[in-house]
Amino acid sequence: MVAVVVAVVAVAVAKVLRALSLNKTYALPSGNVTALQNFSYDFKAAKVTAIVGPSGSGKSTLLNLLAGLDSPSTGTIYLNETNLGQLSEAARAELRLKHFGFVFQSFNLLNILTAWQNVAFPMGLAGETLQKRKAHAEALLKRFGLGERLHHLPYKLSGGERQRVALARALANNPDVIFADEPTGNLDSKSGSIVLDALFEVAAEGRTVIIVTHNLELAKRAHELIFLSDGKLTNAPTNLSELALT
Amino acid sequence: MIWSLAFSALSRRPIRTFLTALGIAVAVGSMVIFLSLGEGLRKAFASQIGSIGPDLQVSFGDFDASASFTMLPELPAYYLTELRQKSSEFGIKRATPLLSHFRAGLSPSNSFVFQGLPPEENLADLFSGFKLNEGRSLSIEDETSEVALIGAQVAKRSQLTLGRQLRLNGDYSFEIVGIVSSSEGIVDNSIIVPLKSLQAALGITDKLSFITLDLDEPSRAAETAKKLKAAYPDLGFQTRADVLGVLEQGVKVTDVVRLGISTIALIVGAIAVANTMMMSVFERTREFGVVRAIGARPRFLFGLVLGEALLLSFVGAVAGVILGRLGMIAVNAISINLIGLEVAALTLRLVIFAVAVAFLMGLVSGLVPAFRAARISIATAMARE
Question: Does B243 map to a domain?
Answer without folding.
Answer: no
